[in-house]
Amino acid sequence: MELTILNISGKETGRKVNLDDSIFGIEPNDHAIYLDTKQYLANQRQGTHKAKERGEVAGSTKKIKRQKGTGTARAGNIRNPLFRGGGRMFGPKPRFYGFKLNKKVKQLARKSALSYKASTNNIIVLEDFSLETPKTKEIIKMGNNLNIANKKSVFVFPEQNKNIYLSSRNVQGVEVVIASELNTYKIMKASTLILVESAVDVLQATFEN
Prior knowledge:
It is a single chain. Helix content is 34%, strand content 15%. The protein is of the alpha/beta class. It has helices at residues 21-24, 30-44, 103-119, 136-145, 162-168, 184-189, 197-208, and strands spanning 2-6, 12-18, 123-126, 153-157, 174-178, 192-196. The longest helix has 17 residues, at 103-119. Helix 2 (30-44) packs across helix 3 and helix 4 packs across helix 5. The relative contact order is 0.18.
């Protein structure tokens, strides 16, 4: 498919870019998107939760009452989970929530996400630009020109650009990523995907390898 390249003023440059149908025009696989998104979110979890069990809480180990003849249930010590201040039964323990996902499934998921954006006309190709100094108002002005203000948008660059990153980090709903770090979760979460012209080749080369 072909898309018209726009400039930062939101006007057509008269040039077009061809997006590979094997990446932007496939039949989306919803289950692959689900698995890749699930893995990404699972990997974000710290997994450092911890509750003390009866062997870890402070307290005496002395038997608090005799075993029989009290008319109540037997009890060992005050660290019993049934008592206030005792340990917790089956409490959370530190663990890693991530899981393995095949490379081809992840690749299919990203292609499916990109195809969804392309089919709904939520991809914009922007000509290469740069900022000499960090200026937040330039990013805000660009968003107004592209009609993406107040929407969740992701700018995709071929490589790290410090000035653009610093300019966009305080703009709500705007995120800047490099092509090699673009994942299914970020694609699907964004309302609009803005591909910088030079990032298109990098992105398509990434899927060819």
